[in-house]
Amino acid sequence: MRAVQKELEQSGILAPSGGRQWSRTTIKNVSLKDAYLPRPRDGLKGLILPEVLTGLDVKRCYGITWFGKRRTRYAGLGEARRVELAPRENWVAIPIDLSGAGLERGMVHRARAAVEGNRPHAKVGDRFWPLSGGVLYCAERGRAMICYRTAKSGGGYRHYYRCRPGITLAVCPNRKSHRAEELEDCAAATFKHYIDDDKLLELYDQQPKNMSGAWGCAVALRDR
Asked: Per residue in 139-174, pLDDT tens?
């Protein structure tokens, strides 16, 4: 995705927001959208209304955009607005003509497989956070840990990992903040003690798609 981002920006192609900089999250979301997955007309059966299907050209291919995928509601009088995913049966499929777009179904599936489970690294200050991006998880809630920093009185910052504060999610009973440098050194020493870099990459490649990064490798090490 970094290479795609660089190519788009150097080619002067504007992002959907109109800016010159592309977010890797945006690029990932594009590859996962059904609007960019070409289907033959007959592949839309059961997704769109029969009267809409009959009006489509059998020689063309189509993507799908979903209307009503999210809904807005208020928990109570004076409460903040909440946006949530609507029940799947309430979504309405709208076909989009993708003929001439240069998209191939197999190519889109390969792109999706390549980015499945990817999470961007944290962007807190100018520091690289090696345990972010879906590597470090909370043992209490199983959620990816977040990164933050606090300013020192004499200048500079202290860096921490902690479980994500509960807003819409359940509040984690473990509210401890862990010093980033100590936790990163501990993680590096743990993996170095058990396995070399080549074997770690091999285990990473073997993990199911629903297990992210070093977390999946740690499970593999435990099982062995």
From this structure: 877 778 889 999 998 889 999 998 876 544 456 777
DSSP-assigned states of every residue in 21-77: PPPHHHHHHHHH-GGGS-EEGGGGBTTB-HHHHTTS-TTSEEEEEEES-EEEEESST
- With beta carbons less than 8 A apart as the criterion, state whether 161 and 122 touch: no
Contact 142, 152 (CB under 8 A): no
Contact 201, 213 (CB under 8 A): no
**CA-wise closest residue to 169 among 141, 146, 145, 147:** 141
Helix or strand (DSSP H, E) at 98? none
- The per-residue pLDDT for range 35-90, each reduced to its tens digit, is 999 999 999 999 998 999 999 999 999 999 999 988 887 766 666 677 788 888 88
User: ∠ CA(41), CA(89), CA(33), 5° rounding?
Assistant: 55
Query: Starting from the edge strand earliest in sequence, which strands make up the sheet with 39-40, in order?
Result: 39-40, 61-67, 92-97
Distances in whole angstroms, Cα of residue 82 to Cα of each of 37, 86, 95: 30, 12, 28
Q: How much is the pTM?
A: 0.54
Taking every pair of Cα atoms in the chain, the longest distance, rounded to a whole number of angstroms, is: 71
Reference 60, options 93, 96, 94, 36; nearest CA is: 96
Q: Which of 122, 149, 150 is nearest to 136 (CA)?
A: 122
In angstroms, the Cα distances linking 205 to 84, 114, 134 are 34, 12, 15
